[in-house]
Design goal:
The chain is of the alpha+beta class. Strands 2-1-3-4-18-5 form a 6-stranded mixed sheet, with helices on both faces. A 6-stranded antiparallel sheet has the order 7-6-17-14-9-10. Helix 1 packs across helix 2. The protein is globular, with a radius of gyration of 21 Å. The mean pLDDT is 94.
Length: 299
Amino acid sequence: MSLAPRAVLVHRRTEYEELLARHGTHGQAAFFLTSRGRSIDEVLRRHERTQHALREVAAAVPLTWRSSRVERADLDRFLFAPEDVVVVVGQDGLVANTAKYLHGQPVVGIDTDPGRNPGVLVRHRCTDAAALLRAATTAGSRAEELTMVEAVADDTQRLLALNEIYLGSPGHQTARYRLGSDGDQGPGEAQASSGVLVGTGTGATGWLRSLWLERGSRADLPAPCEPRLLWFVREAWPSPTSGTTKVAGELGRGQGLQLTVESDRIVVFGDGMEGDALELTWGQSVRLGIAGTSLHLVT
């Protein structure tokens, strides 16, 4: 007998909740902001909008379904199941934070603050939740398969990301490594830089785009569902022992970028989640390419 679907509501602490955690009371938080020429009123209104959206979405879950909630900080400890329907209630970035822990489960993005969020991934309002939950479990419903990027280390560690993966020094200082592509003859080019970024079409509205603009790149930015990645080396440093001939490129399906560590420690993290990173040491290697899984975003 198959299990009933489970709606998993993903959210994050609001600014108001973070202020209370730091200052203890509403009055102390208000005093702190007032002393800096700001008001707590708008922060409180955004908090109330988020709480209202969470209540509306929770109420829209069918009575025959199971339900659960998970906060952003606990995502790396939460076990998603194949029958889950994931409802991200918050900002676009929260969808990206969640995507790396999924394996094909449908995702619904609910915008808690229309007009403040871009709404690239959280495209819907809380009043649409009931219809979207039904659509998520209906065959043939409209959805987009968003390309993801993965990093696979030689010790089998694996990391997924929806926007981009960054590799570099944990202190954002100079990272030393060798960089090459699948099928290259030789060990690759020795480089010293502030890191390597590999991004998707979804990430082309963020960090990847800023690098693309800064370089004046002639490569077309990929679309979110396009099986293509762009990569850039940040601030490669030419020296007698390090080169700068491989500083940008693109990867199609089946193609990979190979990096071998030549410094004490390099971290690999996705979508800004530095607390859940791979750590590689001298001599280890990692391959980056298009992930075999994608984000199933209900539209």
